[in-house]
Design brief:
- The chain has 184 residues and is α/β, with parallel strands linked by helices.
- The protein has three helices and nine strands; from the N terminus they run E-H-E-H-E-E-E-H-E-E-E-E.
- The chain has a six-stranded mixed sheet, with helices on both faces.
- Strand 2, helix 2 and strand 3 form a beta-alpha-beta unit.
- The chain is globular and about 50 Å long.
- The model has no long low-confidence stretch (mean pLDDT 93).
- Bound molecules: inosinic acid and magnesium ion.
- Magnesium ion (MG) binds next to strand 5.
């Protein structure tokens, strides 16, 4: 069998350095799964993954949740292929599920300026969920421009552009298993 721990050397760039290893990510997800299980015990939440970046985090996170839960996805765009938020957010793929009266957990890869979270909060509240909370794998706290509490945070990180584990650099590198800082 192939060694899954082997470095993904073909897709690593010289200016990448490991910020959070795949083992650390998986350990933290175990804890987050326990936290979510305790917070939603007796309920049947729906997790909404924010595409594209949140797909791997959502997939791994739900396997650490010891409750029945549903999933759906929404796709929004604010960045185009740039590294800075344009501030103009569009819905590229709407929700499929009816979230009225449901316990909703929005699952983001990373919260940077927080503008996406602010947009999603406004947009999803209109559907009258019973509760609406946010989970993010990464939080760049120093960059946040908004005052909305993020309920479940994997790791707080410094203000550096990161790739891997779902996060992209011009649409590629999402398949890296660890999270890397891009040194510019
Ligand atoms: P916000 O609206 O500024 O909080 O931006 C959130 C979105 O921008 C995230 O969901 C990511 O898709 C993207 N993003 C922000 N920072 C990074 C990064 O360091 N690497 C990759 N994508 C990022
Ligand atoms: Mg995102």
């Amino acid at each position: 069998m192939k060694n899954l721990k082997k470095d993904q050397t073909e897709i690593l760039e010289k200016n990448y350095s490991v910020l959070i290893s795949e083992d650390k990510i998986q350990k933290r997800l175990e804890e987050m799964g326990e936290e979510l299980t305790a917070a939603y015990r007796g309920r049947h939440p729906i997790l909404i993954g924010v595409l594209n970046g949140g797909f791997i985090f959502l997939a791994d996170l739900i396997r650490h949740i010891n409750l029945d839960c549903e999933i759906d996805f929404i796709r929004i765009s604010s960045y185009g292929d740039e590294k800075k938020s344009s501030g103009h957010i569009k819905v590229l793929k709407p929700l499929s599920a009816d979230i009225k009266g449901r316990h909703v957990i929005v699952v983001e890869d990373i919260v940077d300026s927080g503008l996406s979270v602010q947009f999603l909060l406004k947009m999803l509240s209109v559907f009258e969920p019973a509760s609406l909370k946010f989970a993010t794998l990464l939080l760049k706290k120093s960059r946040m421009k908004i005052d909305i509490p993020i309920d479940f945070v994997g790791f707080e990180i410094e203000d550096k552009y990161v790739v891997g584990y779902g996060l992209d650099e011009r649409q590629i590198k999402r398949n890296l298993r660890s999270i890397y800082i891009v040194d510019s």
